[in-house]
Amino acid sequence: MSKIFKSVMSVSAAAIIATASITPVMVNAYGDSTGTIEGRPVYTYQEADQLGNTITFNSFTNGKIGDERNFVGAKVAGTTGNTWKDDEINVKDGEVYTIRLYVHNNSLYHTANGVKATFNLPTTVSNQHTIVGYLDSSNATPKRYFDEVKLVASEDMYLEYVNGSARYVNADANKNNREFKLSDSVITSEGALLGYDQMDGNIPGCFSYDGVVMIDVKVNYSVAAKVSKMVRIKGTKTWSESVVAKVGDEVEYQIEYVNLLAEEVKNVMIRDVLPTNVEYVKDSTYLYNSNYQNGTLLKDNTLTTTGINIGNYGTNGNAYVRFTGKVVDNSLACGANQLVNWASATVNGKVFKDDASVALDKTCDTPTPTPTPTPTPNELPQTGASTIVTGVIGAGSMATMLGYYIASRKKF
Is 400 strand, coil or helix? Predict the structure, then answer.
């Protein structure tokens, strides 16, 4: 696993990897997994019947957002109207930005399966960061789609992913917007499943079932700390960024903190957020630093709730916090599971983070059946996520948006 800027610092935005890096892809604005310069075929929505039985995503050149290949954009969080920037956005220190990924199954009658979204967030400190959004489906052609947006600052920066900000917004049959919370795994190689009524990976075709994935990231100019997270099976000696375990195993986690500032910092707070299916083992937290080189037991057991105060640290001063978790089955999903575990250090009001993960498989006897969608008409519907278009994707009526051909501002 390639950790984010691990030699200098760790922040949640950069902690994009759970067990393996998202394969780096040299992209030129947008593309897909066809492997051709031309990319997938494109259509107008009036030509949707040419797809036949083929399921494809974001291939209309005159959809609700214009050219659907430009499906990743950014804007200042909380702003309304059509303020999305599809290519590049200038960012400021301390501001939060919303990153969107538009999702539209162009098929008229067929349901896409295994649909998930992934954001590949930058892993370095730079004055320019390109965020790549990926959309995958197991039965679509092609199976993977990607697009990007660039964040540009006046000086070097890093991006802090806002924990818990991932959500999917679509509209029900009555045009009412609804929001589904997504797992933070959307910024890891695992990705996050999408859906329509539930996030089960199944999205029927046509505009009635489109939606938008959104995450928030915060821009930070200063680098104050390094936080590194490691894990191992209890009883073993080697620390790593991911381990394979089974239900009932105990795993040990280690959090390293290093002060990168030129002055002493006081009252450093360390906190760990355990994933579902890993339980904290009581009285297992130990602190190691210059005062406790052999470790000291911390009996307040608040590491995974409010956090613990590990004291003051001078320049390059460091500390290790170790504790034990137990792998349990609290409604584990069938098949492969990645239990991503986040550690954070709060220094002078800023939060620095890193992650480790536990991988395990669960075998289920009875597979979940795939629902059969109701066929939709071969025309642009008047129901669906039209409110999303005006409130999330952009302002203007449905009739106005569909009356214009918005050519792509990006080139292969």
Answer: helix
